[in-house]
Specification:
Helix content is about 50%, strand content about 5%. It is α+β, with helices and mostly antiparallel strands.
């Protein structure tokens, strides 16, 4: 008997009988006592799964969503409170290989669809809120609407049918016009952060283009704002506006006069700096003018006087970087090159020879394998690595950790690209050429080749080319440094961070969590020192000279603790509205997060530069748990206002610290001894 694949529907069974079995299972669950419900759930889940595999199954579950919830299918799970659900997590649930995870996510979304349509009056979520949530779910899971089956669906087997059918059912009732407009807004929000890795954004824009071109999809007036995004990839200039293909475009270039080429250069630069995306046609144009009209390179890169001066001074190097690293497949590197020149870092003496070395670097088999698996065999791995270097040096705050627990390594790469570019290039050379990086911990050599393993059991391939090659080495070294701290009292970050990140990381160290117990300790003193070290009002108005590593307690939208996370404090200053804010780098792929309460991390419109996140100082202080400082540059801790400290402490106690209160803080006040 053959098993149907993920793309084929299940054979039709007696649907009425199956639905009746479901009604019986729901009734049995509803009538059971609370302690017995767990024993009734497997029957309900299995029957729901079988119903969802049939035509009309989603509608049947939607019609019974109120009965399912009141019977107790969500009790004790993250889905029990729909008002705090996060749309971005639905992808992981819908693509899970665990049947129960897919089923409970499907029931939850069909419940919200029933609420959105007014069929279920819910206690904690309104119809408008449910509708908004589902439009976000659709935007995030758009590939399930229009995409072909991929490896994830093949791994899921029949469960993929449920996920895809569910998303299509929700879209048919919510309306496709909501999907496209929400998706466009989401793309612009991400692009404002200027990430290095933009593959997912490119895929989303491609889906929009395909959706708009499909005569079977009625978008109404939706998707009108997509033109700038689509044209940035498929038609940024007059000569390639109809997306003719690279070969045809190259033929057109050979017949253009100086004026037409000038127009193309200006059009490419305008589009690139508008979106942060680079079209493959731009790479074809750069390679053409490289051989025929290299005077247009500055125009094509959209350089200011600073960038033009740098280009003129290092012209041979720039031309070689383009020749060796810029191809239609690696076109995104053009944006990195432009920003690299604007930063002026080539004037630092070691950077020029380090980049010359990069253009001829021999790549070891291990690094070559990782690059080819992630990006393909054309162009050569050297070109991909050059593209990665250009992007990282041009966009040091655009480094992302991918789906890996390697925030420390991503932070280190970002700090070096930002503050010590020649050191970053040395790391790339060691990892790519020698398949080994050696760092030192308090004078002891630490080799990535002999380490016993890193924080991540395996580093995934959803990274930029530099991270793909270097992070596995850094992760092993970081873990090995941690092992060298075994037996020391206190948190190992005190010693590891300065040794790992370099001399610019402050040797002073503060933590507000007792490592042994996990409880809060010396919170008020910790906060006073943080204010004294970083707040301009309390540190003598001393700007932060070098970016500093720090650790935050990340919380979800309900202010519940998720985990510890490495970030970099970049600067502290007032925003355009006069609010004192901490601007920081977050290695998460999307830094615009809701940390609960009123803590919405901002990535734009609050004075942020590309790649920065920010929070008001007081809010940030309520999430930081580790920071470094220069012990010779201290402010006055005693001057911090008591009222402000009390507000910060309350935020800690109401969020990630609520289960970390020391025993003394949990004791009740003694009863009154006065007479009655």
């Amino acid at each position: 008997m053959s098993t149907p694949d993920a793309g084929n529907p299940a054979p039709v069974v007696d649907f009425e009988k199956l639905v009746q079995r479901l009604d019986d299972a729901i009734a049995a669950l509803a009538e059971s006592r609370s302690f017995a419900k767990a024993g009734k759930l497997p029957r309900v889940f299995d029957t729901v799964r079988r119903v969802l595999l049939q035509p009309g199954g989603c509608q049947a579950i939607q019609d019974r969503s109120e009965h399912l919830e009141k019977a107790g299918v969500f009790l004790g799970t993250d889905w029990a409170e729909p008002s705090i659900l996060l749309p971005q997590l639905t992808t992981y649930a819908l693509q899970s290989t665990e049947p129960d995870t897919v089923i409970v996510e499907a029931m939850s979304e069909l419940r919200l669809l029933s609420v959105a349509r007014g069929d279920y009056l819910h206690d904690s979520v309104s119809a408008e809120q449910a509708h908004h949530y589902l439009t976000q779910v659709l935007a995030i899971n758009l590939p399930m609407l229009f995409g072909e089956a991929g490896e994830t669906e093949r791994e899921q087997g029949k469960l993929a049918v449920i996920s895809r059918t569910l998303v299509q059912h929700v879209a048919s009732q919510i309306g496709y016009e909501h999907v496209i407009d929400r998706l466009i807004d989401e793309i612009w929000r991400i692009l404002k952060q200027r990430p290095i890795q933009v593959n997912s954004v490119r895929q989303m824009i491609t889906q929009i283009a395909l959706c708009r071109a499909d005569p079977n999809v009625d978008l109404g007036s939706a998707g009108q704002g997509a033109e700038r995004l689509i044209s940035s990839l498929y038609g940024p200039t007059q000569a390639c506006r109809e997306d003719p293909g690279v070969a045809v475009y190259e033929e057109r270039l050979s017949h253009m006069d100086q004026s037409a080429l000038q127009g193309e250069a200006t059009g490419f630069a305008r589009s690139m700096h508008d979106t942060g995306l680079v079209s493959p046609y731009h790479a074809a144009f750069m390679r053409f003018i490289l051989e025929n009209q290299d005077s247009l390179i500055a125009e094509s890169l959209g350089l200011s006087m600073t960038g033009r001066d740098c280009l003129l001074r290092y012209r041979d190097l720039v031309l070689t970087l383009i020749r060796e690293g810029v191809f239609p497949e690696t076109s995104q590197g053009i944006y990195g090159l432009s920003l690299l020149l604007e930063r002026g870092i080539l004037y630092q003496p070691p950077v020029e020879p380090a980049l010359w070395r990069q253009t001829t670097l021999s790549i070891c088999p291990e690094a070559r394998y990782r690059i080819e698996i992630a990006f393909g065999y054309q162009p050569q791995p050297k070109a991909w690595l050059i593209q990665g270097v250009l992007n990282m040096l041009g966009q040091p705050l655009g480094v992302g950790q991918g789906n890996n627990p390697t925030c420390q390594s991503a932070r280190a790469l970002s700090m070096w690209a930002y503050n010590d570019p020649d050191y970053l290039l040395q790391m790339v050379a060691w990892a790519a050429r020698d398949n080994e990086i050696i760092m030192h911990f308090e004078g002891t050599p630490v080799s990535s080749a002999t380490s016993r393993g890193g924080v991540a059991s395996e580093v995934t391939f959803d990274l930029d080319p530099v991270s793909l090659v270097v992070v596995p080495h850094l992760d092993r070294i970081y873990a090995e440094m941690g092992r060298l701290c075994i037996g020391r009292e206190g948190d190992p970050h005190r010693w590891v961070n300065p040794e790992f990140h370099g001399w610019s990381a402050g040797r002073g160290f503060r933590i507000n969590v007792d490592v042994a117990t996990g409880k809060l300790m010396d919170l008020e003193e910790f906060l006073r020192h943080f204010y004294a070290s970083y707040h301009p009002v309390y540190n003598g108005n001393q700007p932060l000279v070098h970016p500093q590593p720090a650790g935050v307690a990340v919380t979800d939208s309900a202010a519940r603790f998720i985990g510890w996370h490495a970030i970099t404090i970049l600067r502290v200053t007032r925003d355009p509205e006069g609010v004192m804010r901490v601007y920081f780098y977050n290695p998460n792929n999307d830094s615009g997060q809701n940390w609960g309460g009123d803590l919405q991390v901002s990535t734009a419109s609050k004075g942020e530069r590309f790649g920065e996140s920010s929070l008001p100082f007081e809010q940030f202080a309520s999430r930081v748990y580790i920071f470094h400082f220069d012990p010779l540059e201290r402010g006055e801790p005693a001057d911090v206002a008591e009222e402000e400290l009390a507000r910060v402490i309350d935020r800690v106690h109401q969020s990630w610290g609520r289960d970390r209160l020391p025993a003394a803080a949990l004791q009740a006040e003694p009863p009154s001894t006065g007479s009655a």
